[in-house]
Amino acid sequence: MTGDFSKGSVVKTVLSLAIPMTFAQLLNVAYNIIDRCFIGRIPENATLSMTALGVCMPIITLVAAFANLCGMGAAPLFSMERGRNREEEASYVMGNAFFLLLLIGTALTVLGLVFRRPMLMLFGASDNTYDMAKNYLSIYLLGSVFVMISLGMNHFINAQGFGREGMITVGIGAVINTILDPILIFKLHLGVEGAAIATVIAQFCSALWTLYFLTGHKVLIPLQKRYFRLQASRVKRIMGLGVTGFTMSATNSLVQIACNTNLRFFGGDAYVGVMTIINTVREVIVQPALAVTDSAQPLMSYNYGAKCYGRIKEAIKFISAVGIIYTLVMWFIVHTFPQVFIGLFSKDPQQFEIGIPAMRIYYFGFFMMVLQFIGQTTFVALRRSKQALFFSLLRKVVIVAPLTFLLPRMGFGVYGVFAAEPVSNFIGGAACFLTMMATIWPELTRKERELAQEHEVQEPRKKDTA
Fold first, then answer.
1. What is the pTM of this model?
2. In the chain, what are the domain boundaries?
3. pLDDT, mean over the chain
């Protein structure tokens, strides 16, 4: 493994990272999916237990958002510095990111435990679900640091070209979580608390493996303590670029809060449970699309630093074609067989009755979502953080969140909450992708042409000197 992304086939390089990354991201969401599968089969209060877990989801999403703030912010910088052959600066970027993850993870644990009651009530908890939600969240927050390390630092494994090892990071946790869940939930009768304990133990093991690999001899640039010292300018660059990934996750948390609040008001706890199932299915089917776009990011960042602009354009074309085809196929499958997906998490007839139409509405035009991913990835990879941030806020804050409140009150009732998502996909996805193509693509073409002209000028000079 050379980690030189300026050579070889772009398609093969992206696929070499995307395939293991797809499995890695699927395994990553498996933590929550496995919990929900088992919780949905608790003999008593299964539906309420699922709803309680859904109430906790905005906080769980927020923890992931802070992991993205550091990991997704530092990884492109790390790749660019590698492309410029500045390995010491790349080491500082990774070391600073790790120390930030430790600090933020600790702060989230403390703040989450202190303010858990007002947060859970705000996020849609009712008198029927609060105690279960509190018990699950209290345990989960104790493992926040482990979540931050495993999610945030895994970006540096992938950024060095070790896609298989990145997959192992989350694979370890998923396997352990799968083994522990039935034992703790059913055998020891711990219910939702057992699911939380299993998740924390699994994340701890994932974090341990991540640190073991990044401090070993196999990596190109290892994690070393002497690079932990924070520098204000470096932290600013990491945060500036990472704010896009953070905003994407944090605004997901905002939308989850808006959905839970309105669903409980217009429909009750059962509808919050259905949204939990829908979000779980979305987490699964969106991962291959995210893996393809995310796997192209280190390649694009590296080649931008190495001034290989044509390879960036080739990567954009490839991920666009694959992403659109995949999401069109998944839209057809979900629309045709919604009952199959609901049946994975619930046997309650009421969940099927309200869930099938809700799922068809929510996933309408699903392929438009991938256009947002492509645009965001390209903007972040080329350090266009302001554009990436703008379109992230546009889709979630400006479009989805307000529509979640407005549509139910405009005569669409409870299903208006589910309709907000497809509207945002069409508007936000198209705006992000078209803007990227109208700004980034011409710039890459211009830089590519200028570089070719420089080479033409330099060649005669070399011959004359010879």
1. 0.68
2. 10-454
3. 86
